[in-house]
Amino acid sequence: MNEHYKFVNRPLPYAYDALEPYIDAKTMWLHHSRHLQTYIDNLNKALLEYPQFQDWTLEELLVNIPSLPDAIQTPVRNNGGGVYNHQFYFSNLSNPAPMHPTGMLSEAIQTEFGSFRSFKNSMKDAAASVFGSGYAWLVVDAAGRLKILTTANQDTPLPLGLCPVLNIDVWEHAYYLKHYNLRADYIEDWFQVVNWTQTNNNYLNCFPANSR
Questions:
Q1: Cα(96)–Cα(177) distance, rounded to whole angstroms?
Q2: Annotated binding-site ranges for Mn(2+)
Q3: Exposed e or buried b for every residue in 95-123, given b needs 16+ CB within 10 A?
Q4: pLDDT > 90: what percent of the chain?
Q5: What is the DSSP letter of 149?
Q6: Which residue, of 23, 28, 164, 194, has the greatest Cβ tally within 10 A?
Q7: Which positions bind Mn(2+) (predicted)?
Q8: Which residues pair with 113 in a beta bridge?
Q9: Local structure of residue 51 (DSSP, 8 states)
Q10: What is the per-residue pLDDT across 42-51, written as a single tens digit (0 to 9) for each?
């Protein structure tokens, strides 16, 4: 996602109804064309009067928030995080989708969690535990190991030096039209549309090519 100002809302790589019956078309349309678009518009607005930061990538902005002027630190954290988190979330979905991780990610999950089932239960628990709004993440830490963590609101793992592999959005706008207040049902359905081929690529991208 090496984008910089002026940020734009890229089309999804699938139709809004492609994730049916697990995630409904209306939710996907609102999530992408309204919620994500608002974060993009607000991020562009925050950077409008600061041309010295307009060639920074989204990742550079989020990692270096303390280096930004005080006036835009919070808008960039909230809206830049909203852009990054949503784009990453959408990029890891597909239908039909592989039912299990593939490649080196599959091996790493077996090593770290013991089994895919154990990983899945841990990811479910993390997503269910988020109080209010936020995300659950599968990331690679500085030691090259997989970890599960949660972030609040639109915070990202990037300032922590972590490399994202997969995330699930548990803001209510991600599921309320179909699943109402039943977050656990949404989490179960989300697992049906995870694009494990893409997440394996994300995992590989967390390592320099010569260290694989």
A1: 22
A2: 31, 86, 169, 173
A3: bebeeebeeebbebbeeebeeeeebbebb
A4: 94
A5: E
A6: 23
A7: 31, 86, 169, 173
A8: none
A9: G
A10: 999 999 999 9
- Of the candidates 34, 65, 75, 60, the one whose C-alpha atom is nearest the C-alpha of residue 177 is 34
Residue type, 174: A
DSSP E strand stretches across 26-116:
none
Q: What is the pLDDT of residue 38?
A: 98
Burial class of 94 by CB neighbour count within 10 A (0 to 12, 13 to 18, 19+):
middle
| 135: β partners | 151, 169
Position of tokens 């694989």? Answer: 212
Which of the four pLDDT bands, split at 50, 70 and 90, describes residue 3? confident
- Cβ atoms of 165 and 140 within 8 Å: the answer is yes
List the beta bridge partners of residue 168: 136
pLDDT, greater one: 86 or 97: 86
The predicted pLDDT at position 1 comes to 57
C-alpha angle 120-129-148 in degrees, rounded to nearest 5? 45
d(CA 71, CA 112): 41
How open is the CA angle 196-43-8, to the nearest 5 degrees? 60
Residue 130 · residue 111 · CB < 8 Å: no
Per-residue model confidence (pLDDT) at position 208: 80
**Cα–Cα distance between 79 and 26 in angstroms, integer?**
23
Q: What is the pTM of this model?
A: 0.96
